[in-house]
Amino acid sequence: MGFALDQGLSLFGVADVAGIREEFSLERKLKEKFDWGICLGKRLLDAVLEDIKDRPTPLYFHHYRQLNFFLDRAAFLLSSYIQESGFQALPIPASQIIDWEGQRAHLSHKKIGYLAGLGFIGRNNLLVNPEIGAKFRLVTVLTDMPLEADKPLEYDCGVCMKCLKPCPAQAIGEKKEEFDHRACFEKLKEFKNMRIVGQHICGVCIKACSGVKRREKN
Hints:
Blueprint: H1 2-6, E1 11-16, H2 28-31, E2 36-43, H3 46-50, H4 58-84, E3 89-92, H5 109-115, E4 120-121, E5 127-128, E6 136-143, H6 181-193, H7 204-208, H8 212-217
Antiparallel strand pairs: 1-2, 2-6, 3-6, 4-5
């Protein structure tokens, strides 16, 4: 953990992935090597999020890409450190879609983050950390290094519904099971086709989500 946090990361957690690795889009021999997933997170800059109103902005798009580069480098450095320690590690890209039709990556960083105790799944269908809300991005390192797994957090959004009204796709419901994936993705495609940004991103509900503990303090 010390090595990871020295890289300037905001979040660190370990998940036992043995029960979900069948979901990984990796060769069987490869995914069967790894029992653990190290999830790393980096917080977004508040000032960049302030630039967002009802759609993503070029500034947010640039920040999004820089965060992915940062996380990918951190995952590479951690993986190299693990290998030099005598174990195997596989860094999974922070943002790489390998099935555009199904919108699938090699694995779900969100699910790994949940199992690693970094947050809970909110109404916005994002991983929500109690302290910083949804204002972060994640990357995962799979490894066979023996580690102690963290546990999922016992939190939820409670009465907070700050993300419902701002959502430009109106995809968020009062219950997290009501989240409309199709409506969300269609709006992301609309933003991309408008050439506002070069990827399927939004950021509106991320800006709105401030976390549970901050709300409790207020």
